[in-house]
Amino acid sequence: MRSRYTKAIDQKTTDLLRELKLLSVPVDVEAVARKLGAEVVYGDLEDDMSGFLLREKKIIKIAVNKLHHPNRQRFTIAHECGHLYLHSDQGDRLWVDKAYSTIFYRDSSSSSGDKLAEIQANQFAAGLLMPEVLLKDCLGKELSDVDISRLALRFRVSEQAMTLRLLSMGMLAAA
């Protein structure tokens, strides 16, 4: 199984949150997006599309599917912030058309983690929403399903996202 956790990206998210003075539970992900220069807009998108990042000249917008669960919306914003923060200088590999705009889609291909940029954006989102330093402050020695559920509620993420984050950090043993 491919590890989805990288210390370097995790450190970048923690450093960014400290720099922006937003290292608290739950992370104000919309404030992070604004401080990175993006406007967050909610709209009617195809059901299988969580959102996208649009960069066109000096305009940066993160579009989010308004019909999705608030936890999914938070992850989508964090994922698009990952592209904005990590991939703005990656050139043609991520640009749809340099002359017009750059679009990074968050859809089923990104959640499968097949593309490196999508894997990195997912790692960034996990680190942004569930910073290791804040998780460690909240954790006891052993975790139960109830603890994971409480942590997910506190950090405003899904139980699945919390479980994956704890597994990837080695803080939870695989069943």
Notes on the structure:
About 50% of the residues lie in helices and about 15% in strands. Residues about 90-100 have low confidence and may be disordered. The longest helix is centred in the middle third of the chain and has 17 residues, at about 70-85. It is globular and about 50 Å long. The protein contains 8 helices and 4 strands. A 4-stranded mixed β-sheet has the order 1-3-2-4. A hairpin with a 2-residue loop joins strand 2 and strand 3. Helix 1 (about 5-20) packs across helix 5 (about 115-130). With about 180 residues, it is an alpha+beta fold.
How would you briefly describe this protein structure?
The protein has 175 residues and is an alpha+beta fold. It has helices at residues 7-19, 29-35, 70-86, 108-112, 116-129, 132-138, 145-155, 159-168, and strands spanning 39-43, 51-56, 59-65, 102-106.
Essential attributes:
single chain, 175 residues, alpha+beta, four-stranded mixed sheet, 4 strands
The number of E-state strands comes to 4
Structural class by helix and strand composition: alpha+beta
SSE run? HHEEEHEHHHHH
Distance between the termini: 14 Å
Radius of gyration (Å): 16 Å
Strand count, sense and closure of the main sheet? 4 strands, mixed
| Approximate helicity band | 40-55%
Tertiary shape: globular
Low-confidence stretches: 90-102
How is the largest sheet built, in terms of strand order?
1-3-2-4
Number of helices: 8
Strand content: 5-15%
